[in-house]
Every structure is written in C-alpha cells, then in structure tokens.
Amino acid sequence: MRNLDITTLRSFVAVADQGGVTRAAGFLHLTQSAVSMQLKRLEELLGLELLDRSGRTIALTASGEQLLAYARRMISLNDEVMSKLTDQAYEGEVVLGVPHDIVYPAIPRVLQRFNADFPRVRVQLISSYSLQLKDMFKRGDCDLILTTEATVGQGAETIAELPLRWIGAPGGSAWRKRPIPLALGRRCLFRPQVIAALDAAGIPWELSVETENDRTIEATVSADLAVHAMLEGTEAAHLAQIDSGGVLPELPAHMINLYGGETGRGAVVEALATLVRQNFRLLGGVPLKAVVG
Question: Which residues are in the HTH lysR-type domain (predicted)?
C-alpha cells in the first residue's frame, strides 16, 4: 500500500498555484531544491509525469490536472482535522442545564454534534427542575440553561413552543379510571395546569405518585397505573400520548426557553447555543426569529 504525503502534495499545489518552482519555494519558505525533490518523489510514487517542463514555464500535464483536485481536497481535510483536534483555543468545560423531561430526544443529538465540533471541550450536563436551573444560572453555575415555562422569562429566548399532552402506557386504560390516578413531580411546573384542567372539567383525580424522581413516574405510568403530562414529542418510547376522544381536557402549551444564548459569550458557548436552538426548533416549530424576553 502506497501513501501520499501531505507535505509533498502541498508543494505540488503551491507550484500549480504560483506558476513555478521558484515562486512556490518562496511561498512555502523552502529552497528550490527541496520543492523540486518533493515533486520528483511524487512523480516516482505515482509513476506519472505531473509537470510539463518542455516550455519556458512549468505547466500541469493531464495527470497533474487530475491530481490537483484530489490534492486540494486532501490538504483541506488534513488542515480541518489538525485544527479540530489540536486547536488549544477550544479546551475546557461548558455547563448546560436541562429539565429532566426535555432531555430526550434533542439533547443527545446536541451533545453528539458538539463533541464532533469541539472534541477537547467537555459538556457537563445538569438535569434538574426549571426553577432550580434558573437559580443556578443566576449564580453563574451554568453557562446555558433550558427551562419549560408558560411565558418567556426576562433575558430568555423562546426556542420552541409545545403543547402539553396527556401521557400513559401504550394501549393503557388508567385514564378511564375515576378518580383518575396521576403521577406528578412535587416541583413540576405542569402540575398546577394539569390539576386546574381536571377540576374545570369536573373530573375527579388522585395523586397516585408524588415524587421528585422522573424514573419513578415513568415506571408507574408505563405500568398503566397512572397518567402523566409531558410536552409533545418528549415522551420516552415506552410511553404514549393518550387519545381520549375529548374525554380528557386540553392542556395549555408551554415554552422552552433558552438562557445564556446571547452573543458575546464566547465561540464555544455560542456554538452550543446554536445547536440547542436548531434541535429544539425541529420539535417546536418556532420561527427562526425567536421570542425574546
């Protein structure tokens, strides 16, 4: 297996662009003999004549023209890899806070793409309730946070607006029971709206599960022992939106707000904010010109 050398290809491209060995040598800060030697080795490796030296100026042969396009692509890819993996300007840590119930499906895609773009930057993902995340952001403990709120908060940017949906077990019947069994978090912002909607509809309810652990809620709901409420499209695969045929009341929409995404926060934070916006707008359909508080 024969391998092409990037340094040699760089010299070849320089000769093509500069119109000769002398000018290419000056451009590369090499001697003419060094550039000529690199070109000779390249031709010997390929077994082809790449330069037409019969005239007063050097021109590319047909093989040389063909190689030139490949060489440019290889050099560009080499430089991109070196920049991504060795650029010391993008090292460190960025802290991202996200409520438990909207981590999926967008955040894994965000983290995967960000790691590809900034492999030397560690993202510390903090999952908590919106109110706690806002407190952490105010104290400077998070660089970026997402919240689920009924309105856009001061200094926030709404990146998605999603309807709240009744969630149960696939094919489940817990929603038919009266009183309807609920599984809700103690500090869940959706809780007051869920209870108010049921009260307004005259549907009796009871708290079957009241916890701060989302896994407990998921287990109870997936076992068809209670119902829950989540933003549309954020439910796990083992849960399903309930089609009650209008029996259960409609729930209000909520905003997913981004704090800390304004410009001037540094290239790393701004890049992460951009990825967050792009992925959540796939869920929420908020226009590119988002609502800002």
Answer: 4-61
